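MODEL INPUT / OUTPUT PAIR
PAIR INDEX: 1
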Amino acid sequence: MILIADSGSSKTDWRLIDEDAISQFSCIGLNPYFVDKTIVASELNETFSGIHKEGVTEIHFYGSGCSSESRNTIIAKGAKQVFPAATIHVYHDLLGAARAACGKSRGVAGILGTGSNCCLFDGEQVIQEFRSGGYILGDEGGGVDIGKRILKAFIEGRMDADLEQRFVKRYKTNVDEILENLYKKPFANRYIANFSRFAYHNREHPYISEILQRSFRAYFQKMVTRYAEYQTIPLNLTGSIALYYQEVIRKVAVEFEVKIGNVLEKPISGLTLYHTNLGAE
């Protein structure tokens, strides 16, 4: 049996492949920045309480925060306690996005979820990527960037009166409360990203439409166009922002002469195909 995981900070999607049968599981996010090997083992024991654990021979874990050997070891050691017979592979979530969206083909792969990222993929491995400054310095095009632009417009009084009324009615908040959440409470990135939903529900409004286009233009300018081949191979995307705003993204892509390939909300289905040798060649 083979286990495949796609893990974010809040949720982990699992697929168990047993011959021709595929089963779905989920648990909390297993980001090694926030969990230790004991928590990993406890979550896996509970999540897979009903399966024969010694029968699992491979684990392919793609996770947020899994970008160094020391952090990857946290996941691997926790998983080994539960699945002693398994060979465990831990990868960064960017490689997961690339394998899911590109399959076995060369392409530029991007993540547009709460945050954003981008890389050049050769059909098996990430061969070029650039560091991201995270939600404070980067993440252009992601939910946190869109939410930040919405909040900035509200705080600075730049929204049209009708749009501002919709905002207040939806969130029942004010500037002081927003600033309290931004600067004095934890998980500011999640708080900010929540406001990207306002953009989605009001995406036909000219002011919001312009915000979205500026956010995605920044993604193309600062991330996608850094790759020499960006106009000759497809840009394949994963993430909720990529899926729900793909109409706007495709419009902006035309400006940069970029061809959009696959767009997936979650990588797990594509990763399942990749590891069962059914991915695109």
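PAIR INDEX: 2
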Amino acid sequence: MNPPVPPRIAALDGLRGIAILLVVGCHYYAVVPTPAGSAVNDFLRGAAGLGYSGVDLFFVLSGFLIGGVLLDHRTSSRLLPAFYARRLARIIPLYLLLLASFLVGRGIPGLRTTNHGAYFISAVPTWSYFAFMQNITMTWVRDIGPYWLGVTWSLAVEEQFYLVMPFVVRRFSLRQLMGACMTVILLSPLLRLNALYNAHNAFAAMFLLLTRADGLMWGVLCACLVRDDAIKSTLLRHHRLLTAAVAGGAMGFGLLTVRHAGADSPPMLGWGYSLLSAWFAAAVLGVILFPGARATRMLAWRPLAAVGITSYFIYLFHTPIWYVLHWLFFNLPPLHLSWQSGAVTVLAFFTTLAAAGISWRWFEGPLLKLGHRVSYE
């Protein structure tokens, strides 16, 4: 008999859904040319401008969920084999499918040369993608890499986090781990600014584990807080402060959106990412501590939660599907210069959702259940 898969928290899936919609919106509308004076496109570009922060929400969620799993099983003699077997089953197969699509795609002559070859050609070596080192090589050569695989820098950051975190959780007590989290949270923006101003390398500021670890450690800190009875009781008593923090974060998000804060801008690298991660952490705490709250129930809305459940596929494949459809229809990269091209982008979005559902039902879900056959006990 297979061990049961731990129950999902629908509202956390809803947060994942928001995270992936932010990322997709950013890629679809904030980074492609649009006709001047188009009210619809101008609105979409402005609204999606801060969508790259969806990656930070993913980091906080990953830190919370992975940190919680490690804390709950930290004394198990099977912690390492069970943890890595489950991560392998969840991450590697779909990632290898993406890499296979990349190798196939760059062998298609018309597709290979679209957008001046930027989908498949760059100074970033292909081998680094198989070693989850692309974020490091991107920093070394100062190149985002082939666009087909551009989003995978954050996956490399998370994989490096997974390698380190089990040993940290085993080594530290709960209070020591909280102190370590706060130390990293404070150091990360300083490291980002050092990379930007002293090393003059914005790629290092944006793509390395240590410079982006604050989001992950905010998540781990949240996992610690809800497992400390005294702190949890304090948070429950002061729920209005938590509500105010979430509301204030929403206002800050709106302000950064209006100001069109760029992903590599000094304000974002200095304090922007830190404040956004703190806001996302407050939202995660609100979901966990107040499951009956109206906002938590709204996040658990089934269509949004379904998008969150399939967000890994959507994250990896939304740009390749988008590129291929625009190439098939127009023999061009995605350019929102007409209503037809906008319609193809909408088609790409729903095609991605459908493919993600199929992948979850017939590929990812069964593999996840297989991974959970490796028990922590």
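PAIR 2 NOTE: Residues 10-317+327-337+360-371 form one domain.
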